Amino acid sequence: MAKSIPKIGSRKNGRIGSRKNGRIGSRKHPRKIPTGVIFVQASFNNTIVTVTDVRGQVISWSSAGSCGFKGTRRGTPFAAQTAARNAIRAVVDQGMQRAGVIIKGPGLGRDAALRAIGRSGILLRFIRDVTPMPHNGCRPPKKRRV
C-alpha cells in the first residue's frame, strides 16, 4: 500500500506558524489577564458564555450543553447560570478583575448568566445588549387559500 502524501501547508504537519501541538507559546506560567470581555449568547435552546481578553482572543468558554444539560433543560436559567460560573472560574484564577459584558439573544438565560457574572467578584465595566433587531424583517409567507 502506498504512503499518502501530506498536504503542503496543513496545520497538522506544522508548516504554518510556530505552533507546536496546537498551542501558542508556553503555558507553564498562566497568563495574567487583568481585563477582558464576557460574551453571553442566550438562545431559546442553549446559552453560550465566552470570555476573551481585550484583543478578542478566547481565554475560556462554556455552554449549558457542555455542562451536562440535555434537551430542553439547556435553555433554562439554571443551566445558563452554571455555564457562566464554569466559564468565569478559569479566568478568575488567571487574575481577571474587570470585564465588560456583551449579551446577545432572546433566551431565558440572559438574566441568570448576568447575575452569576456579577456574583463572581469581577467588576463590570459595561453591560451592552447587541441582540439583532430586524428593521422590517423578512417578507411574510403568502396568504393561505383554503
From TrEMBL:
Q: Which Gene3D superfamilies match?
A: Ribosomal protein S11
Region spans: Disordered: 1-30
Does the keyword Phosphoprotein feature in the UniProt annotation? no
Entry keyword annotation includes Nucleotidyltransferase: no
Q: Where in the cell is it found?
A: Plastid, Chloroplast
GO CC field: chloroplast; ribonucleoprotein complex; ribosome
Top-level taxon of origin: Eukaryota
A Pfam family found in this protein is: Ribosomal_S11
Major localisation: plastid
- Give the molecular function GO annotations: rRNA binding; structural constituent of ribosome
**Signal peptide residues on this chain, from the entry's feature table:** none
Q: What are the record keywords, sorted?
A: Chloroplast, Plastid, Ribonucleoprotein, Ribosomal protein, RNA-binding, rRNA-binding
An example Gene Ontology biological process: translation
Q: Where is the composition biased (Basic residues)?
A: 9-30
Family annotation (InterPro entries): Ribosomal_uS11 (IPR001971), Ribosomal_uS11_bac-type (IPR019981), Ribosomal_uS11_CS (IPR018102), Ribosomal_uS11_sf (IPR036967)
Assembly and partners are described as:
Part of the 30S ribosomal subunit.
Q: What HAMAP family does the record point to?
A: Ribosomal_uS11 (MF_01310)
Q: Which family does it belong to?
A: Belongs to the universal ribosomal protein uS11 family.
Q: What is this protein called?
A: Small ribosomal subunit protein uS11c
Identify the species of origin: Melilotus albus (White sweet clover)
Q: Which gene encodes it?
A: rps11
